[in-house]
Write a structure and sequence with these properties.
Blueprint (H helix, E strand, L loop, with lengths): L22 H23 L6 H14 L7 H26 L11 E5 L2 E5 L6 E5 L17 H6 L4 E6 L12 H15 L4 E6 L1 H12 L4 E7 L10 H8 L2 H11 L1 E2 L1 H11 L3 H10 L6 H13 L5 E2 H14 L8 E2 L2 E2 L9 E4 L9 H4 L1 H5 L4 E3 L7 H4 L3 H15 L1
Parallel strand pairs: 3-4, 3-5, 5-6, 6-11, 11-12
Antiparallel strand pairs: 1-2, 2-4, 7-8, 9-10
Helix pairs in contact: 1-3, 2-3, 3-10, 5-6, 7-12, 8-12
């Protein structure tokens, strides 16, 4: 009697998302990395190249071969490792795209709106703190998920957090310059609160908050700058200028849409750490999908892949001015015709510089703590996003920021 047929394999679950964006770029980078490793492996086996990093990688593979005499030797080991890493990447991407997590936090009420922008009030009985996020990522990273919401935690811990949600840029916003955003919409949002506020800017939003605080010290009682870039050439001027040199290639897309598309922005971020996405997803493939770590990973990746276009005038100002010419650190960045100079601030200031930040290197953010007289420098042992929404965010940033605001 024949053995019974095995049950058919279960069909994979439905796809819930399309990321990581742009997917083709990340797959291509992985392919190029594997191809380069395979092409170089015979030379590595012969003792070339001699750089410390290459020698360390070659030594690691050689150690894995110790005691084995399989045919192929070193090049075969490199091939097997490349295949293993590529398989892990595909498995991680597939697991992410099928993960059932879905952000379901309702927005708090808006107390002011203009165009596509809303000012969300998270409640609380303490001093108002108006959070200014980046223009290119969704504001909800500060209200990420149940138990991972910085703003809901602060509302229950003695503050009244408000969040400026820039929204998707419409026809009007696609004509905006940085002056329009800062001296116009941001200042009107501050005025809508009715009382002076603590202004807290995150990442690019910190530059907008800094300029607004300098312009309207009568409406701002204190300033918090969270992972805010300032000296764009401090860590790697060549890389910053390489990003600026991308601008002519992006002009056709901006001429069509009057904005820098989301996928183009994702490509620029990928240039900062070309293999970082691949490494993240290989790690995700090893996680239990039902774990808190897996759900947090999916929540953060969903946010990263849910960006917004950047108005073309702003994109040109940021890429050519900030990255290309380093105008902020050289005190040549102007808003409404006036230079933005942190040394002119006479406000209590809190400068958070995460030690493991790959998006805004600590060397770029730290000069603000020196330039602003009397600023408090806070250096959490976290990354750019982990400081605000990661598993250790309460200890890394939420509680220290709350304590600093209340001490004012």
């Amino acid at each position: 009697m024949a053995a019974p047929l095995p049950p058919p394999p279960q069909a994979p679950g439905p796809l819930h998302r399309r990321g990581p964006r742009p997917l083709l770029l990340h797959l291509t980078l992985a392919m190029l990395r594997s191809s380069a490793s395979l092409a170089a492996s015979p030379n590595w086996n012969a003792g070339w190249p001699t750089s410390n990093a290459a020698a360390a990688e070659a030594a690691a593979v050689a150690a894995a071969l110790s005691g084995h005499a399989e045919a192929g030797g070193f090049p075969q080991a490199v091939l097997e490792e490349a295949l293993r890493q590529d398989s892990a990447l595909i498995a991680g991407i597939a697991a992410y795209r099928r993960h059932p997590f879905h952000r379901d936090l309702p927005d708090p009420p808006a107390i002011w709106a203009e165009g596509e922008t809303r000012l969300l009030d998270f409640g609380g009985d303490g001093p108002p703190v108006l959070f200014v996020p980046s223009l290119i990522n969704r504001a909800y990273v500060l209200d990420l998920a149940q138990g991972r919401s910085m703003l809901r935690w602060l509302a229950g811990a003695g503050l009244r957090p408000l969040l400026l949600d820039w929204g998707w840029p419409g026809e009007a916003e696609r004509r905006f310059s940085l002056t329009d955003y800062i001296a116009g919409r941001l200042e009107r949002a501050i005025g809508a609160v009715g009382t002076p506020v603590v202004l807290a800017g995150y990442c690019m939003g910190g530059l907008l908050a800094l300029a607004a605080a300098q312009r309207r010290p009568d409406r701002v009682t204190a300033l918090a700058l969270l992972a805010t870039p300032w000296d764009f050439h401090a860590a790697d001027p060549e890389r910053a200028q390489a990003v600026a040199r991308m601008l002519p290639l992006l002009e056709p897309a901006m001429a069509f849409a009057r904005a820098l598309p989301v996928d183009a922005l994702q490509i620029l971020f990928a240039l900062l750490d070309p293999y970082g996405i691949g490494d993240k997803y290989r790690g995700f493939a090893r996680l239990d999908p039902d774990s808190d770590r897996a759900r947090l990973f999916v929540a953060l990746e969903d946010w990263l892949n849910d960006g917004t276009p950047l108005a073309a005038p702003v994109a040109r100002e940021c890429l050519e001015g900030w990255y290309g010419q380093n105008t902020p650190a050289r005190l040549q960045w102007r808003v409404a015709g006036l230079p933005v100079d942190p040394s002119e601030l006479r406000l209590p200031s809190f400068v958070a510089v995460p030690a493991r930040d790959r998006i805004v290197p600590p060397e770029s953010a730290r000069p603000l703590a020196t330039a602003i007289a009397g600023a408090t420098l806070h250096t959490p042992g976290a990354g750019h996003i982990g400081m605000a929404a990661g598993s250790t965010a309460e200890a890394a940033l939420w509680r220290p920021l709350r304590d600093w605001v209340l001490a004012r």
